[in-house]
Every structure is written in C-alpha cells, then in structure tokens.
Design a protein that fits this description.
heterodimer, A: about 180 residues, alpha+beta, Alpha-Beta Plaits, 5 helices, B: mainly alpha, globular
Chain lengths: ~180, ~475
C-alpha cells in the first residue's frame, strides 16, 4: 500500500471476469506461474481445483477441530469425574462413584459440541468474517459473483503488480472483461 | 489369491460400464432440464425477495392458521404455568404420559433433517441437495417443539438451569449415572449443532440474497446474516472443509441422540422398556417418522411454490424408499420385542406382552401395526412412491403410527407393571391434547416464517447440481 501515492484513491486490484470454470482455473494457474501471489478467485459455487491452482496450502481447520474435540471430550469426562468422585460422591444404587460406562454419553456429546462449534467458528474466523464490507464489492458487476459470474482478482499488494501489465496479462487469459477495482479511500 | 490372478482381470470394457448409465437413465432427473445458474438462483430467491405487499395469499392463509394453532400452545402452556402439571392426566402408575410421548415423537421427526444433510452428504447422494435446507429447518423447529415438553414437565420451567452442572449455592450437582442427564447433554448439543449446521449452509445463500435484494432493509438484513461472504476460493475451501467436518460430526451425533433417548427407557427395569434393541430401533423409527414429516410438508409446498423442477419425482421416490427400509427395520423391532418377551421366560415380560396385545389398550397396539407395518407396505409399488396424494396419505399413517408406538411403549408398559395393586389407567386431558396440538402450531408458524424469509432450497447446491449436469464426468 505504501508503494502508492496516498492522495489518489489507490487501486485494490485488477478484476477479470471469466466465461467458465475451466478458463478461470487455467487463468489462476497461469497467474501463479507468472509469479503473482496476492490474488483470489470469486465464484458462485466451489470450483474444483481452483484453490490448488492459486497455490494455497490446505487449511489447518481440521487440526483445530481435532484439538477442540479432544479438549471437549477430556473436559466432559473430567467434569463428571470431579463431580461424581471428588466433590459430590453419591451412592446411586450401589454403583461405583467412578462409573466409566455411564460417563461415556456426556463425554461423547461434549466432544461433538466442542468440535462442531470450532468447525463453524473457526471457518468464519479464518475467513476473516464477519467483515460486511470489502473493497472487492466496489466493482459494479461483482454482485453477480454470488449468482453466475466467475472472477479472478490480482491484488495491488502483489510485488509484481503493474496495472497495465496485469490488465494485458488477464486479457490474454481469455477474460471476458477486465476492470480495475478501487480501494476504499 | 495370488497377485497375478488379480492383475489378470481385464479392465471393464465399454459395454460393461454402459449398464450403469443405462440403469441411471431409468430414474427421473434430480433437476429438470433447461436450468442455469441464474434461473435456479432466481427462482428460489424470488420466493423470498418478493415485496411484502405481494406475499402470496396462500402463504398468508397458511400462516394465519398456524398462528391460530400457536395460540392453543400459549393457552395450554400458560394455564399449565398457573396451575401446575396437575392439569395433565399424569399420575402413579403412569407418571410419564403425553409429555414424554410427544418429546420422543418430535425429536424423532427432527432426525430426518440431519440424516438428509449429514449422512446422505457423506454418501455423496446428490439428490439430498434440493431437500436438505428444508429438512434441516424442520429439524430445528421439531427440536424446539420437543424441548417444550421436558421443560414444561419440570413443573417450574424457569428453573431449567438446574439441569446443567453449574456451581449451585445449594452445593449439589447432576447425577451423571442417569440417562435423563445424558438426555440434557444430547438434546442441547443436538439443538446447537443443528443450528450451526443450518446456518453454515445458509451463509452463501444469504450472500446471494444480499446481492439480489432491491430494498435497503432487505440488503441490510441479509448482509448481516451473510457476514460479508465473498465466495472467494479461500472462503470456499475452508467452507467445504467445515461442512464436511460438520457432516462427519453430525452423523454419530444424530445416532447418539435417539439412542440416548431410548436409554431413558432401556436403562430402567420396567417390563417393555428393559430391552437392548431399543437404541437401533428408536433410531430407525426416528428416520421413519422424520421422512414422513418431510414429505407431509414438502408435497404441498412443492405444489404451491411450483418447485417441481427442483423437487422431482426422483426425490419423492427416494424418500419413499428410505421410509420403506426404515419401516421394515421398525417392524423387525416390533417382532423382536415380542420374541424377547417370550424368550426371556420372565413372568412380568410375558404378562406385559399379553397385556400389550390383548389388554385394555390392545387397540393402540393393533392400530400401530396397521399404521406402521401394514399400510406402508404399499411403498413397494412405484405408483405409491411417486404419486403425491397416496404418498401423502401414507405419510399421515406413519406419523400417527409413530405417535402410537411411543404411546404403547410409555403408557401400556407403565399402567400394569409389577404389582397388580398398583395398576391403573391413563388418558390425556384436554390440556395434554392442547399442548400437543399447540406445538404443531409452533412448528408450522416457525416453518411459515422460514419459508418467507430464507431460501428453502440451498441455491448454491442447486448451482452445483446444474454444473454437474453440464459436466457429468467432472473436470478432467
């Protein structure tokens, strides 16, 4: 951002629209091959192979969920153990205070609860949401990205970003339309 | 078998794989021809984004009726809070009556939604896509209705938090060897996970509504719900991971919930309850009742909103087949209950069976067999699976049958247990019926509000379906 003159509204990036999923994936792969790194694609459906074409690494979300599940299950079990054995031992029908089989259902439910909430909240947080506004929404045709339009945006933050070169590059990739998106002032 | 034998097997030839396509061609399509991204999104979004003044009359009428029935709920619950549970028909020996019957009935209905959205997702069943959103909403509302019964049965529902382990000033804690405490954890986890699963599915769709809405209020409302979803490849990547994980977590969850509900009975020693077959048999019954309820609601909605392009004969056929299979499992459960009772050689078990078949409540058992075992056998025939009116009527039989099943389990087992001196009778009072019918009002009201405000079919999944139809082999 500091590379740009602060007075004029800076560009957020160059947004190209593509006619179909194959063209978009090809363009993303080509952009990556040409050395662009700061970019993202926007599609109305999850497109197979697109994320990989952009050269991103697999999300760590599954590991977070696994961790949360282990924590939830352990907490659930320990909660029951502490209550039933240490803090409030109660003789119920002569069963042992530490009734392992009886503690399984709650342990299981707590495992699921912690991991499911982590999957959802983790997905939202890693995606940087909630973020009601984003410069990409400044592009007039972007509203179509949630219905039937496919976009690739090479962002101005990219070290190789040069407006005219990027425009020419995207046009070369069979983009239907290329437009510059302005950042918020 | 040695390695060379296996490698010697020739790769399947064209003619050998061709039968798969030929077999698939016999099925009705999952989505009718001639749709593209814009048309599927538009058709579903327009139902929601229609101007308030142009709300269809049918919706207003349906909502009005549902809202009226909801008043029965408020009346019954209100009078209950004033007078206490004495207004119900409960007493010793039948201390668990309508409240638990209706609780199990509703929560079972809810299970179909999770089955459709989680289990069928894991099995890659694409036909689930157009019914999942609706069924998930149904799950949520059914769980809300189910929750009313144990809550109101508490007598002092405002003290519901006593159920949870919290450092109480009384120094007491829940008793974790009781299935009733497991139930609290199972049902509250189930409600929470169902809610977040449903909301996760909604995020890309409310983003579409945000982008299509004309009115500022609608833009803001859906904009808030969409959290700023941009549909970027990074978003989608994590989204798909989260969705897959949720499906994987919901699958054992849904099986555990009804298993734990069944343990409320099975862990006790009451004849007719103390059976190991209860967990699987309850889960199958839940799926059975749930699919019947999905079809009960979906058949009129599909006609009214002209959604036959998305909810095709294929969907009706598949759902009817699931009902047939789960119904047969339930029938097997009934047979095994009889067998266990007889084979146990236990006097009380055998007496319970004779009482169930020929006692004063014998009519309820035979009616149950008629509704749940006899009538649904019509589903073996394709014309009953794909023609809406007969299918709808069969679903009503199943809903009644599943209610009777819980009546038989709860009331008939309790009213004559061990000691003849303690035998008695039970019937629901008008307040029992009022609360039960009232929850149907609650269910329908919530469902009508949902249909008006949120897309009832997952739009992004329908776009995926259109995409798959265009590229049947996937991208090379």
């Amino acid at each position: 951002m500091s590379d740009h003159a602060p007075a004029a509204p800076a560009a957020f990036g160059m947004l190209a629209e593509f006619a179909d999923e194959e063209a978009l994936v090809r363009a993303a792969a080509a952009a990556r091959a040409s050395g662009y790194t700061c970019m993202d694609a926007y599609t109305p459906i999850p497109v197979e192979g697109l994320y990989e074409a952009l050269g991103r690494r697999r999300s760590k979300l599954p590991w977070m969920v696994l961790g949360a599940g282990i924590i939830g299950g352990s907490l659930g079990y320990y909660l029951q153990y502490w209550i039933s054995v240490i803090d409030y031992p109660l003789n119920v029908g002569g069963r042992p205070y530490h009734s392992i089989p009886s503690f399984i259902p709650v342990t299981f439910e707590m495992t699921i609860l912690f991991s499911a909430l982590t999957a959802v909240i983790g997905m939202i947080m890693l995606n940087g949401l909630p973020r009601p506004h984003h410069p990409i929404f400044n592009a007039p045709s972007f509203a179509g990205a949630s219905t039937d339009k496919l976009f690739l945006c090479i962002e101005a933050e990219d070290p190789h970003y040069d407006a005219e070169a990027v425009r020419a590059f995207l046009a070369d990739q069979d983009a239907v339309e290329v437009q510059e998106v302005m950042d918020d002032a | 078998m040695s390695d060379d034998v296996r490698t010697a097997a020739p790769p399947p030839s064209e003619s050998e794989t061709g039968w798969v396509e030929a077999a698939l061609a016999d099925f009705a399509p999952m989505i009718e021809d001639g749709h593209d991204f814009e048309s599927v999104t538009g058709k579903i979004a327009d139902i929601v984004l229609v101007e308030p003044k142009k709300t269809p009359r049918g919706w207003i009428l349906g909502f009005a009726i549902a809202f009226l029935i909801l008043q029965v709920f408020f009346l019954s619950a209100g009078y209950l809070l004033v007078k206490g549970t004495g207004i119900w028909g409960l007493n010793i020996p039948v201390a668990w009556g309508f409240a638990i019957i209706n609780f199990v009935w509703w929560i079972g209905i809810g299970h179909a939604g999770t089955l459709i959205s989680a289990i069928l997702f894991l099995f890659n069943q694409d036909w689930r896509m157009s019914i999942s959103r609706f069924a998930e909403a149904m799950t949520l509302f059914a769980v809300a209705c189910a929750g009313m019964f144990p809550l109101l049965h508490l007598g002092r529902p405002w003290l519901f938090y006593w159920l949870f382990p919290y450092p109480a000033s009384m120094g007491t804690w829940p008793q974790f060897r009781s299935p009733l405490v497991w139930d609290v954890f199972a049902v509250s986890t189930y409600a929470t996970v169902s809610l977040v699963f449903w909301y996760t599915g909604l995020i890309p769709d409310v983003a579409s509504l945000r982008d299509r809405a004309k009115h500022r209020a609608a833009k803001v409302f859906y904009g808030m719900l969409a959290l700023g979803w941009r549909g970027s490849a990074t978003h989608w990547h994590r989204y798909q991971l989260a969705y897959m994980l949720l499906a994987g977590l919901s699958t054992p969850l849904v099986l555990s919930v009804h298993s734990i509900v069944s343990l409320d009975f099975a862990v006790s020693v009451v004849p007719g309850w103390h059976t190991t077959i209860f967990p699987p048999y309850f889960v199958a019954g839940a799926i059975y009742a749930g699919f019947a309820m999905v079809l009960t609601i979906m058949i009129p909605v599909r006609k009214f909103y002209k959604l036959k392009d998305f909810l095709t004969e294929r969907h009706l056929d598949n759902m009817a087949k699931v009902m047939l299979v789960s119904g047969l499992i339930v029938a097997y459960g009934y047979a095994m209950e009889l067998f266990f009772g007889w084979y146990s050689g236990d006097t009380y078990e055998r007496a319970m069976l004779l009482n169930r078949l020929g006692g004063p409540y014998g009519w309820s058992y035979w009616l149950l067999i008629l509704c749940n075992v006899a009538v649904p056998q019509l589903l073996w025939f394709k014309k009953y699976r794909t023609r809406t009116l007969p299918l709808w009527i069969i679903c009503q039989f199943i809903s009644v049958g599943m209610w009777l099943e819980r009546f038989v389990i709860v009331v008939v087992s309790l009213h004559r247990s061990f000691e003849p001196g303690a035998w008695g009778f039970y019937h629901g009072t008008k307040w029992d019926w009022g609360l039960y019918i009232g929850t149907m009002g609650l269910f329908l009201t919530l469902l009508f509000v949902f249909m008006r405000l949120l897309p009832m079919i997952a739009m992004f999944e329908m776009r995926e379906l259109v995409h798959k139809k265009k590229h049947p082999g996937g991208h090379g």
